[in-house]
Amino acid sequence: MPNKEAYIQNAQKLFDEGYACSQSVLLAFADDFDLDKTTAKLISSTFGGGMGRLRETCGAVTGGFMVLGLAFGNEIPNDMETKLNSYKKVRELNKRVSEVHGTSNCKQLLIKHASEQQVKDRQHHKLICRQLVGDATGLVFDILKESQKIGV
């Protein structure tokens, strides 16, 4: 079983190859959930840039939410215990990212770490996005490990 650093390095390598932040995080965990990589790429492809460049919730974080859905999500519509637990895990990831970076909002992260010109020139990927991919991946790994969903 790969360690936390291996997941982080894999996610950042995927990001460096050109995958969106959301794709990079989800793909780093795809094998653990027998998730077809093409499906993973397609599902997560529109969440980059704070969800379709809306600059809302960071794509690395929403990619992490997808992983948490795979680990904790409900299949039965009225299984409220499972549903509410999965929502709790999503809030936990969001809280942990916000503790590290002050926010999980893409726009606020960009304002904090890059100038408007750097964003326009797409330099923000190296300034903050790559770091967020690594941090979100590591935090997802921690949540999965704490719940014995990985590394056991």
Query: Which regions are unreliable across 5 or more consecutive residues at pLDDT < 50?
Result: none
Rounded mean pLDDT is: 94
**Strand tally, please?**
0
User: Structural class of the helix and strand makeup?
Assistant: mainly alpha
State the end-to-end distance.
8 Å
User: How large is the share of residues in beta strands?
Assistant: under 5%
Largest sheet: none
- Outline type: globular
Polypeptide structure, described:
The chain is mainly α and about 150 residues long. The chain has one domain. Helix content is about 70%, strand content about 0%. The chain is built from 9 helices and no strands. The chain is globular and about 45 Å long. The mean pLDDT is about 95. Pfam families: C_GCAxxG_C_C (PF09719). InterPro entries: CGCAxxGCC_motif. This is C_GCAxxG_C_C family protein.
Indicate the topology.
Layout: H1 4-17, H2 21-29, H3 37-44, H4 48-51, H5 59-72, H6 80-101, H7 106-113, H8 116-120, H9 124-146
Helix pairs in contact: 1-2, 1-9, 2-3, 2-5, 2-9, 5-6, 5-9, 6-9
Key traits:
mainly alpha, globular
Provide a compact summary of the structure.
The chain has helices at residues 4-17, 21-29, 37-44, 48-51, 59-72, 80-101, 106-113, 116-120, 124-146. The protein has 152 residues and is mainly α.
